Structure formats: structure tokens, C-alpha cells
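Our preliminary data section would be incomplete without showing what the modeling component actually yields. Below, a chain of 229 amino acids is followed by its predicted structure, encoded as C-alpha cells that our downstream tools consume directly.
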Amino acid sequence: MGDDASPRMPGRPPGPSLKGAATRQHIIDTAAGIFAVRTYDRARMSEIVAATGMTKGAVYFHFESKEALAVAVLESKHEAWITAVDNSIRTIAPGSARLAALLPAIVDVHRRDPDTWSVSKLTRNLTELDSTHRRAAELTNRWIDLVATVIREAQQIGAVSPNVDPAIAATVFVGAFDGVKAIHDTVSVDDDGPFTEAASFLNEALLHYIAGPEQCSVDPPASSADVVD
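Predicted structure:
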């Protein structure tokens, strides 16, 4: 039997106890750190088991494979971050102020949890697997839905142009932010200054654009119909 697979042990209880839930979370947190350093492809269950300080059987009692553990890491991290961001922005009235606070709240999550840098990579890794693609997509869509909701709320009170599609704008926002994260991870992983500055620029660009053309300092590109030979 390979290092990354183990049969599900018999006799698993129907629901987790408090101790079992704490043990499961300990495994997840440990695995998140391993994935952050080693990446999903290079991480081995054997080193995750060793890092937990538990026996192989105890770890496999909760997670039957590296794949299942990686999904659990994604679910746990996404839930914690989305809850933190949502709780932060809900203290601000809907509209421009809440919209402006959205990206700083996300950046703050990244500063407080170093494992955030690995999760975008982990999401892409699991998206490439047929068995986990759907779940990875669902988790990504939760971020898009959160951003779209904030944009839609601002739109309802006139702070966002009625011509803006909240779902499309949110998709661009999340995609651009993940791109900034990917570049940071490649060129300046030990310094979050460039990331913070780029994220701030992204936030300002989004706010100017969705507020409406009359408030946007950047002219939109000409369409093909506007080009004169």
C-alpha cells in the first residue's frame, strides 16, 4: 500500500467528539503548514503524520488519504477566512465604505495567517483532480459570492453603477487578487510590502471602475466600432 493511501478503519463513530474534533483540527493545521512549505505534490502523508506527533493509524482514522486531508485543509481555511472577513465588514454600513473595507479585511487575514499563501496553490492543485475539482470550485465561488454580495448591496443604494454585473465584477476582483498573490509568492515571499501596495492599487482600481464612468479617472478602451481607419 502506497504512502498516500490507507483503508478507512472500521468502527469510526458516527459523529466527532470534542476531543476527536480537536485532534482532527490539529491534523488539518499541521497539514496546512506542510502544504505551505512542500506544496501538495511534494508533501507526503508520512511527513505529515510525523509532524503531528501521532501514529499513522490515528491520522488515517480521520483522513483516509492525502487528497481527503487537502480538501479538509481547504474547507477549514476558507471557512475561517470568509467568517473573519464577513464579520469584519459587517460592522460597516452597506455601500462604498463597506466595499472599500473588503480588500483590506482580506489582506489582514493574509497577514495573520501565513498559510494563506499556500491555499491558492492548493486550490489549483485540487482543481486539476477530477475527484476534487467540484469542491475546489465551490470554495472559490464562496469568495466570489461574498464579494458579489457586497457589490450588489452597494449597487442597491446607488454607490455602484447600475451597469455593473456584480458577479462578473466579483470574479474579476477575486481572480486579480489571486494573481497578485501568485506573483508575490514567486518574487517577494519574504516581504509583504509589494503585495500590500499592489492589493491597495487593485482595490482603488476596482472602486473607481464600478462606481461608474463619470467617477473613473481611467478612460475605457475604445471598442472596434469606435476605431476609425
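The radius of gyration is 21 Å. The mean pLDDT is 82. Preliminary results of this kind motivate Aim 1 of the renewal.
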